[in-house]
Amino acid sequence: MMTEYQVSSHLFGGNAPFIEELYEQYLADPTSVDGKWREYFDRLQQTAGAIERDVPRAPIEESFRQMARKPRMVAAAGAADEKAVRQQINLLRLISAYRVLGSRNAALDPLRRMDQTYVAELDPKHHGFSDADQAKVFGTNIAGMEKASLAEVLSFLKQTYCGSIGLEYMHITRSDEKHWVQQWFESRRSTSQYNAGQKKRILKQVTAAETLEQYLHKKYVGQKRFSLEGGDSLIPAMDYLTQLSGAAGVQEIVIGMAHRGRLNMLVNILGKQPRDLFSEFEGRYTTQLASGDVKYHMGFSSDIPTANGPVHLSLAFNPSHLEIVNPVVVGSVRARQQRRNDKTGDQVLPVLIHGDSAFIGLGTNQGTFNLSQTRGYGTGGTVHIVVNNQVGFTTSDVRDNRSTLYCTDIAKMVEAPVFHVNGDDPEAVCLVIEAAMEFRKTFRKDVVIDIVCFRRWGHNEADDPFVTQPMMYKKIGQHPGVRKKYADRLVAEGVVSEAEANEMIDAYRAALDRGEHVEQTTLTDYKRNFAIDFGKYMGNHWRHPVDTAVRLGGLQRLAEKFNAVPENFKLRANVEKILKERGEMVAGNAPVDFGMAESLAYATLVTEGYAVRISGEDSGRGTFNHRHAVVHDQNREKWDQGAYIPLQHLSDSQAHFTVIDSILNEEAVLAFEYGYASSAPEELVIWEAQFGDFANGAQVVIDQFITSGETKWGRLCGLTMMLPHGYDGQGPEHSSARVERYLQMCAEHNVQVVQPSEASQIFHVLRRQMLRPVRKPLIIIMSKRLLKAKFAASPIEQFSSGAFRNVIGDTAELDAKKVKRVLVCAGQVYYDLATARAEREIKDIAIVRVEQLYPFPTEELQAEFEKYPNAREVVWVQEEPRNQGAWHQIRHRLEGCTSPKQALKFAGRPSSASPAVGYMSKHTAQLKAFVDEALTL
């Protein structure tokens, strides 16, 4: 027997899909549907045998389909009822349309130039309503107004979705996230309710933003500053975000941004003294940095007071390559969270400030978003703020700027909500900041704020924007400015008088004349917990002595632990064999290979208190099946149950060991690890390229951060890069780590470049990286062939004694006085030369290995050359083509080690436009040719 409500509600035919949709909404939030519908669904669940709201819905959906097939009960529901029900359904569709598409008609553009394209779904007529229906009352699914007239519903929808705020959240598949955003804004009608004190603070911040820019514009005419004018609401937004962070228990905020507005941010948010900024403009600022950087690239940090305690703000140093700072920031945040044991991201918050064109245009953002929810890189969500000046750089048409409707559409890949907001409405901007902070705290994921604004001047102050945007800049010329519009609004509301608003400008200008702030904005004597002291790493030479050997007994005890697995853990046969062989190695029954040497280094470090973090594509087992830091139970499917990391189970007091199989993106991952390592000097942080060539995809990180960060910004970083390298006939893209590129960037002892040829060398160099009080990037050119080669393995005694050898002399039995030629090489080519020399029984050619290519070990190499007083030739031998490899970058250093009587020559492959040949036969012929050349007197 059908209920009266089933009949009167027209649950038949084509409306069954609508009822299913309404039921979906009921499942997420029963209070979001009309009371009668809720009552009906409650009964239906009981009828279908459902006890919990998350039970399978198949029986209930089947009941809908059955109802759709039942004959219509015309006697009980006449034509009038049918029209009423249809209108009820159409109203709900109209509400849904505003939730999905309302941002298309929001008043977002301060210049009012955006095309207000007709969106049929937002028109009541599209849904069958006429003007006569405006007073009709319907049931709604809007919380707080279950019954309302069409006119009231439209007013609500336009205020909520088409005012100064435009919302995009219906692309989110998780119902709880989607309904959270819906409820948050609908309950407020997207309208702020700030009190007079809060409004005055917002006005004060907008005044500071505009006044600083205008002051600099007049004082330093024509100098670049990348003005924020037009996007002034960013400053009250960041001020409000900082205050909200304090209230939420956030201890640190790490900020990444490009040029625009950076000077304003430094002064008005981070509290940099105006006089210091003026000194930079006037060229009077002094620095101890070797090269330094321009003022709008520099970082800064300070402690900002809030009502709930201090918050530490760090603005990351940022090179010209715009968005590349973003993964650096989230990496730094992850390290700070790790230090605090902040597993939820409640204590350290990443904030990224983007430009509109850069946000959608630069691929590093795709990589950064892709990292955001992964286990090894998540930070509990990033707050993204786009300063959307609608023009990007100088592009004259948005059709040349992107292929999406909004510059923020890239964020939809991680289903982040997007809050568009008119930059002329600072209160609305603050409101979406509040929503973003609460969403991030609730769901631990990214959220995006798109401040739609304009740019008062050109890309920089020397640029003429009228050349490409004449009509836009005519509009901008007529715009009174964000501060003036907001001040007029507050005057009209009676919050301030016009005189009070003007006094804010006068007070700020007077303070600037003194080179000071209007009021104290930073804490100068606050001592932070978890702060890192980099002082102990400053000024130490790379030759600083350190003992990296470990007693044999300690090595054996550790090896016993990391070669063990839990009971009933089924290993793959080849992995079981490798672990068994490692036991023989540490017992002294077999030489130690590279994989075991690495494991010994990590085990000793973590038990000595130095954490280890390794990431890269397939780093767990190692691309070349040599590491096996993660082993897998062959009888368990789920990773978290079937994976075991022995190096995490060495002792109860050990430092953490983390190994991550990263996403397939070199640029974002390497930038992340740089940021992490820069904030974690007590942790060995390693990024491993699957092949050394793959670092090509992260070249901007290497150029603008890793090799130059110290000389530009004074930023110390101990990041280690492992780059598989070696000419083994695997073609152009799997041979060369491009050694020449790293050596070309070497200067001022900025980095270390090593090319180890024996297993013990990797053990000692990794330990040296942490034990020595020096934090410089370490680039390891790692031979693929030597990883498992027995001839490159080392006796266990070389681990319990000795150290990293910058140069390895000839180990063959030669009469030094009879040596006529000395071959000098690096890496695996040594074994090609040594094997050929032995086969030919050559006794008058010595072979010396340079294991550290930079800083160059001049003293050690000279000492080796002096052993052979009658050698008249020194030949640099490399497997790379002549125009690549180390030759051209170290030739002058080799010449500095030779005597005037010695000739310096080269042996290697001929110059090539490609890193390597693609045919094994040609590869073999080239190898034979240069080995013959090197060994033929």
From TrEMBL:
Residue intervals of the Transketolase-like pyrimidine-binding domain: 592-789
Protein name: oxoglutarate dehydrogenase (succinyl-transferring)
Family classification: Belongs to the alpha-ketoglutarate dehydrogenase family.
Primary role: E1 component of the 2-oxoglutarate dehydrogenase (OGDH) complex which catalyzes the decarboxylation of 2-oxoglutarate, the first step in the conversion of 2-oxoglutarate to succinyl-CoA and CO(2).
Entries under InterPro entries matching the protein: 2-oxogl_dehyd_N, 2oxoglutarate_DH_E1, DH_E1, KGD_C_sf, ODO-1/KGD_C, THDP-binding, Transketolase-like_Pyr-bd
PANTHER family found in the cross-reference section: 2-OXOADIPATE DEHYDROGENASE COMPLEX COMPONENT E1 (PTHR23152:SF4), 2-OXOGLUTARATE DEHYDROGENASE (PTHR23152)
Gene field: sucA
NCBIfam families hit by this protein: 2oxo_dh_E1, PRK09404.1, PRK12270.1
Entry's EC annotation: 1.2.4.2
Pfam families: 2-oxogl_dehyd_N, E1_dh, OxoGdeHyase_C, Transket_pyr
Gene3D superfamilies (alphabetical): 3.40.50.12470, 3.40.50.970, Multifunctional 2-oxoglutarate metabolism enzyme, C-terminal domain, TPP helical domain
UniProt keyword annotations, A-Z: Oxidoreductase, Thiamine pyrophosphate
Organism of this sequence: Jeongeupia chitinilytica
Cofactor(s) annotated in UniProt: thiamine diphosphate
CDD domains cross-referenced by the UniProt entry: TPP_E1_OGDC_like
Lineage of the organism: Bacteria, Pseudomonadati, Pseudomonadota, Betaproteobacteria, Neisseriales
